[in-house]
Amino acid sequence: MDRRKFLLLAAQTCASTLVPHCRAWAFNNGTDNPDTQKLVVVILRGGVDGLNVIIPHGDKRYYDLRPSIAVQRGSLIDLDGHFGMHPSLSPLQPLWKNHTLAFVHASGSPDPTRSHFDAQDYLESGTPGKKIASGWLNRMLTQIPTKASSPIRAISIGPTLPRIMSGPFAVATVAPEMKARALESDKPAIAQAFDKMYSDKHQELSKIYGEAINAHKEVSQALDAADREDKQEQIIANHGAPLPRNYNYFGKQIAALFRTDPSVQVAFVDFGGWDTHINQGSAQGQLANHLSSLASGLADLSKGLGPLYARTKIIVMSEFGRTVKENGNSGTDHGHGNVMWLMGGPVSGGKVFARWSGLNDANLYEGRDLPATTDFRNVLVASVADHMQLSSQQIANIFPDFASAGNPFIQS
User: Fold this and answer.
1) Crossing angle of helices 203-238 and 3-14, rounded to 10°
2) pLDDT, tens digit, for every residue of 151-196?
3) Residue 391 and residue 335: Cα distance in Å, rounded?
4) Are 37 and 263 in contact (CB under 8 A)?
5) Which of 384, 314, 309 has its CA nearest to residue 139?
6) 354 contacts: CB under 8 Å, gap ≥ 6
7) Are 40 and 314 in contact (CB under 8 A)?
């Protein structure tokens, strides 16, 4: 049995989807321990309406084009006199104030597609307009330097391995509800049988099997610890009454995974439900409810990381934005430019970065959408290059056929 087939078997056996991995030793720019740097990537699938996330309330056209769904000035959280934050993001306001939260507006893909499938594929592969099998985050994992020896370097939350995490580097997956599943291989008799099957006489297979088993154990222990912490917090804060839970659980769980195993450097999670063609809402409603849950999860993540937050970058992005003008169903349709979120101790926050041309018809993409004046890859390169200690050649390996043109950010 070859390595790829065995790892696929190990994935099914150990509930940690592992693919063949190889590690490329990258240069160290002088940091004593490169393994301390953490990265979390969040994708909002469906095309979140960036204009109602970070609102250009200083532009009158925003209100003219969105008579029923615009977030009014009295409701939003003003950021800089021109842009404001949706009120559902209030849990993140302390991070804005302490300069560890920033936004990059009018960012996105240079490819014109408005297809969810294609746009998400380009966002995850990092190659707009070009289909390749691996994801940019997996390619980055093959490049980052490490001194650690661990079966887990990266975690993907979800039932299947997404494109962004697909590739030669081994990635562990956990269920969307972040619950550790009891496996047949957890039973002592079955575990002993597998241990005997993959004994030292099968040195290569034994090593891979051992990595898979250890990965499953580490993930299970971290999730169990996080679940105990969460239940204890509910007892204290809510007199024993359980809190209603949506997808805001992810923050505490990812933080627990990072704290439990310091060698875990990268986590990925995605959420659907952002395709708001009908009844989008403004300060309240469908979009507001999603943003509230997301903001709570991100706030829990920043808090749960504790001292690790100073060494963690968090990137939130979506495949495309929405139309500037609302449609006849009090919603918005597939658009182009959007807003990316950057969080963490290394972020130069408290700013909205944008090459911003305004919302007049003449400045819109194809007369209807916010233009993507900053390529999303510029934001990713600026976010991960120094943080993960990557050389220009390594960046070229992660984002092939892309040349970053100068400073991607122009402050609004």
Assistant:
1) 30
2) 578 999 888 899 999 999 988 887 765 554 444 444 455 555 555 5
3) 34
4) no
5) 384
6) 104, 105, 106, 107, 373, 374, 410, 411, 412
7) yes
